[in-house]
Specification:
By secondary structure, the protein is of the alpha/beta class. The chain has three helices and eleven strands; from the N terminus they run βαβαβββαββββββ. A hairpin with a 5-residue loop joins strand 9 and strand 10.
Length: about 180
């Protein structure tokens, strides 16, 4: 079965150079050679998104939500979309009581009939499946709070199969390398 890949990133916080590195890398992964067919921006960097996309020429089927630092941005707080047999609920996370657990995220997924939750805000990469709901945080493109450093994720969606989630790090030279969380 054909898989489709989703680029997921969050929390660039003005670090346009790192986001441009991600987009330049992602352009090499686009069809017909690669499989990235869509991108999800989880907030706190919506102004960076436009600058990085225009300067790199990276354009995608965008799914975007606003973060708590996206002042005046015209984007929703939450969104739902479907990709290759999976339904995604996405949010920045600041309104979902993240530091008290994942109950609110899981509840939002159930209400949206989603099997995947994408969220940011904590600046640390995370992937766990709880009660059939995959919870994925790509980390931060610009201001990491993890030992790994700046990260983003790529999710492969194959209809009828579990998601395949890969995390990638961005080093000080803006080189992209696969990382393990």
């Amino acid at each position: 079965m054909d898989g489709k890949k989703l680029l997921v990133f969050s929390d660039s916080h003005g670090c346009v150079t790192a986001l441009k590195a991600v987009f330049n890398w992602a352009k090499e992964q686009l069809p017909p050679d690669g499989l990235i067919c869509a991108a999800a921006c989880l907030g706190d960097g919506l102004s960076d998104l436009q600058i990085a996309a225009e300067t790199t020429g990276f354009y995608s089927d965008w799914n975007v939500v606003r973060g708590n630092n996206d002042y005046g941005a015209r984007a929703p707080d939450t969104a739902v979309f479907d990709l290759n047999g999976h339904r995604f609920f996405m949010c920045h996370g600041h309104r979902h009581a993240l530091y008290g657990g994942y109950h609110t995220l899981i509840s939002s997924a159930h209400q949206s009939d989603a099997d995947v939750v994408l969220f940011g805000h904590t600046h640390a990469p995370f992937f766990k499946t709880v009660n059939g709901i995959s919870l994925i945080n790509p980390g931060s493109v610009g201001r990491s709070r993890s030992r790994i450093g700046e990260t983003f994720a790529v999710i492969e969606c194959i209809q009828g199969e579990p998601l395949k989630v890969e995390f990638f790090g961005i080093d000080e030279n803006r080189d992209i390398k696969k990382v393990t969380i």
